[in-house]
Amino acid sequence: MQHNLNAEYWNAIADTYQQVTRISTKDFHYGPLLPGDSELDLLPQSLQGMRCLEIGAGAGQNSIFLAGMGAKCTALDVSPRQIEYGKELARKAGADVQFVLADMDELNGAIQGPFDLVHSTYALPFSHNPAAVVKSCARLLTAAGTFLLTTGHPLYSGEWVEFEPGEEGLFLHNYYQPESDVREPDQFHKGTAANYHSIATVMSWLLEAGFVVDRFLEPEPLPIPLLEEEEIWKRVPYDSEEWRSLYHVLSAVPVVMIFKCRMRT
């Protein structure tokens, strides 16, 4: 089943991923080389005492940040190894985060709400039924709560190619049926895939679940080549050498899209 492949994949890459990727617990991240929430300002203004649920948390760096701001956080992920990292990070940060080992596609049986904030950063592409996950998030949210969804941008499913010397650009086979990002960790483990969906498709899932979209962002990366290393560490909460090598692509094509939602009244 898909969720077992997800667990196997993330268990296999967790050590390398956590070692080579700098994911801050001092700011809320939305994606590689992007500004954090200290600049995008999408989180609720007051986090003190807020009940928060992170879907597909990995090591829960966003939840650890929110807990440091006074929130009561639950972080759910399918990978035991990622959760091990999360528990150690939370311990070092002195953050009280409840980690739950569960599949996002089985939210209804794994988590009891309600929550004031449900958030997910680049986990939805790994779901085999993302529309159902969005509906489950709506059911877990309080009437006045916030749903903050960051997912893969369909344009990033295209292939970056050099058309002729000095001229690069995006080749997209079909915007309405984006290519999946097939992930193969190594020869010993089975892979999985991150699936992209059109903006209209994700919007339809949100509307059908009863959400109103208050803000929609296709954020640009910060100007990495122009920044001093100290400023990058301060302003970029999600960073790695590999992502920096792709800056020329990320600065031309959005890697994620962000939806800030509330329940329809």
Brief overview, please?
By secondary structure, the chain is of the alpha/beta class.
Radius of gyration: 18 Å
What is the CATH topology assignment? Rossmann fold
- CATH class (first level) name: Alpha Beta
Q: Give the strand tally.
A: 13
Features:
single chain; 265 residues; alpha/beta; Rossmann fold; two-stranded antiparallel ribbon; 10 helices
Structure description:
With 265 residues, this protein is an alpha/beta fold. It has one domain (2-30, 41-263): 3-Layer(aba) Sandwich (Rossmann fold). Helices cover 32% and strands 27% of the residues. It is built from ten helices and 13 strands. It has helices at residues 2-20, 37-40, 61-68, 80-93, 107-110, 130-139, 199-208, 229-235, 241-245, 247-250, and strands at residues 22-23, 51-55, 72-77, 97-101, 115-121, 141-152, 159-164, 167-171, 181-183, 192-194, 211-217, 238-239, 256-263. The strands form four sheets. A seven-stranded mixed sheet has the order 4-3-2-5-6-13-11, with helices on both faces. A two-stranded antiparallel sheet has the order 1-12. Strand 2, helix 3 (61-68) and strand 3 (72-77) form a beta-alpha-beta unit. Helix 1 crosses helix 4 and helix 6 runs parallel beside helix 7. The protein is globular, with a radius of gyration of 18 Å. The model has no long low-confidence stretch (mean pLDDT 94).
